[in-house]
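Thread: adenosine-5'-diphosphate complex, take 2
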Amino acid sequence: MKTKDNQKQPRLNIWSYLRHYKGPIFLYIIASLIAAAASVVNTIYLANLIEIITKPNFLMPAIYCLLIVIGISIFQRICWYLTNVIYYKYSNKIMMDLNMDLSKQAFKLNSKTFNDHNTGSFVQRIIEDPATIVDNLATIIDVVADIITGIVILGYITFLNIWVSLCLIAIIIVAALIENKRLKVYRKNRLIIKEKNDKLHSLTTEIVRSEKDIKSLGLETKLYEVSKNYYEDYRSTRYKTDLKDVNLWSSRNFIIGVGTLLILILGIWLLDKGLMTLAAFMILYSNRDSLWSVIRGLGNISNILVRINVCHNRMFSLFDENEYVTEKFGNKHFDKLNGIIEFKNVSFTYKEYDYKESKNKKDKNKKLKILKSKNTIFKKLSFTIEPNKTVAFVGKSGSGKSTILNLLSKMYEADSGKILIDGHDIRTLDKQTLRSTISLVNQFPYIFDMTIKENLLLAKFDATDEEINYTIKQSALKEFIDTLPNGINTKVGESGIKLSGGQKQRLAIARALLRNSSILIFDESTSSLDNFAQNDIKKTIDNLKGSSTIVIVAHRLSTIKDVDKIFFLDNGKIIDEGTFEELFNRNEKFKTMFLAENI
Ligand code: ADP
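Output below.
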């Protein structure tokens, strides 16, 4: 037995991602600031130019001044080019680092977490939120550079006249008060819109996935209505929230507009009274938008910070154990286990939670977990499966058969009691031991958009052609593959769309067989096979008998006639166990079920 622990601490904020690219980011900031400084210097030289041309003998000094202005402009454009190159190169790198870490984290989440959250919330957190953050971070630097330029120019204008300066300060204070109110509203609305966006995404994914069911059930109109309602809700929420935002933006802009006019009137008055030079007035006039750019810049930056904050919290919530629960493994490692399975007093309840924003300011990034509903499936369930035996769980639909398989493969964790393999609690086994010991063929196996061979190689990267051919024969796939022009190298389409239900299941069985695990689990895996294919699979399972522990949840009782033991489940309890003959002869319920199936 070996012990392994190679868990790495996750990076939990955006700064830890930016740190890797300190050099280029520093260069980006410097280039942006130099470009901003160039604007300021240009403004001052332009002011000089105005001064120069109002005096006699201005030709040569004016040309000299113009040359400097043009030189600075060219230099400024070079800086902008540099910032763009850095941005395109490193924003993609940072985004990829985030995408990869978030995807990796998604792989660590337990199955229950995937059940509890919609697809949209994952897609948005892994793909959309990082993109929003990275785009906005670059904008922040640009806007900061703009603001600095604006402030320096305004400083220069106020240096020219104290009255203009006082007037400017008054306008900035009023605009900032309105802006503060707008931001509070904006943050709240941003969160609401993001959550609605998650739902829209999930709905679209669901529609694409269920396209055939929609057509066969004639659900197009109904689903069109459902989508319309979702979009309507999204649109009207956006409209209402945007309108509130626009109203506050407009009030702020109105104040700035009136303020600018007042400043210019003040300038003309000062000019008239001889308290301001014509050059100073021209500078004030030509830079009148600097006031706008400072206040607008501050507003934009606050918006961007809110957007980053919302996406940042959502994105890193994937690391919040409270809401996105990860799989936990022990550290016991075994190269091979024999496959003795024991359930000892196992209890399990499906619980559904709601997640709400905490009102407590300290915990505002954490969501409150509120129990919405629960459904107890097992109370103190116990049974043992001997190694290399083939057993089946049967019972009415909903009696808990699939849940047993999910608990055994640790897709779900028991609330109490123990699940043991070879006497080891499965919680103490490391991931590799547990996963390699158990191979699971789901009710609806996922087949990847690759060739048949590539799908098989996923189970064992180094499988030889002999092994693959042998598995294909064992899982009754050979006849079908021989009819394909490209044989084993045929592409099967997204989620195996080009295969029939039976072919998909046989491919999934072949994939599981290649892993050569001690425990093989088939969850109703013969449900969509025709009688011939079913017999082939039955033969396959019969062939495997004695070499692995096989656990089957069978759709049809006739397929499990030859298993070593049947556990007969009713409402989460094992009400009988024995061979097919034993149950058929002594258990009326079992007999009725079998006969009903064979009418
Ligand atoms: P079977 O495989 O025998 O048809 P299952 O184990 O799938 O039964 O389901 C047992 C019970 O658990 C059913 O009542 C079902 O509705 C419930 N159930 C199954 N999966 C979930 C889930 N992910 N969340 C909540 N309840 C579930």
